[in-house]
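Recap from last week: sequence in, structure out.
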Amino acid sequence: MDKRLRIGAFGGFRDIPPRAGGAGSDKFAVELYPRIVKRGYPLIAYTRIYPNETREEKNLEYQGITLKPLKTVNKAGFDSLLHSCKCTWDVIVNDTADVIHLHSGANSLWALFLRLAGKKVVVSQFAMDWKRDKWPWYGKLYYRFSNYLTAHIPNAVVFDNIYTKEYYEKKYHKTYDFIPYGSEVPEPPDNTDILDKLGLKKGEYFLFVGRFIPDKGLHLLKNAFKKLDTEKKLVMIGGSPNPSEYENKIKTTNDPRIICPGYVYGDDTNILIKNAYAYCQPSLIEGLSPVILTVMGLGTPLICSDIRENTYITKDNATTFHSGDASSLCEALKDALDHPVQIKKNAENGQKDIRARFNWETITDDYIKILERVKRK
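Predicted structure tokens:
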């Protein structure tokens, strides 16, 4: 094992540790990269500074990771494109890494320049991003172009779900790597300050955590919940630093049971998950969802859409509904309310199952093997 192998990382994540606007890619980075560093590998992670932020543009550190913040814009989609361009330039000009780990195939364009500069590139492709409703036609067109680059330019491509991997292998007649997310979650503190702050009681609310974008299905969840005859609340955590019209519409409601408090940080998120009656994931599109793994790792009952990326994780240990169907989601919510003992039993079974199948230490070892492999080539 070559301890001198220098690793660089940028792409889908915004900061380490995650902050406002963070999502699955941020969770992935904060779990994987400290573990890689602990195994003796120097790693530089490029993070983002938005125009409304005052963070200084200088090297920082988190659990041994060198953090290099670079400025970008607020425009969704273009913020990642500009940031990745700056990261690519910095890697090449300042020779900060030997192998680059890119998040999302949308960044495979930069793999071309990195490879021409003699760098090795590993891309993690999380989902079929070109299908997401949040992208305009030109965004979807760019994603389809980047699919071709992803298939051919990087030294290795890693998929977090077997279905996107299967799609690429059939389309491009090549073999790729599969490594899932991990599920281990430290038991959150016993304090309930965040519940008190939001006016919540243990077991008396449904919860969602994530980005407020159409493919997360929040419009379905909001409409389905409003039809329920229950005193329980619906708490939707998250959002974006640059909220869209869709996000503003979701947050606008005259139902006092629906609460949208914005972004919640650190242990408070897991405290909210741990103490929820059930967690709701109404996604239309997903990769291997980090939040589902977190929810199941904490032993919280889960309600989710029946897309195969979700059911691959949950097996029979979640309450599922037909994806895109608000009526089906409403019935699933009612079923969860009517069968509290059963959903808790499912959660206990699911917790045991995923802790055996999705392990961050094994995942880290698998990533290091791939990084070492491409360096040797």
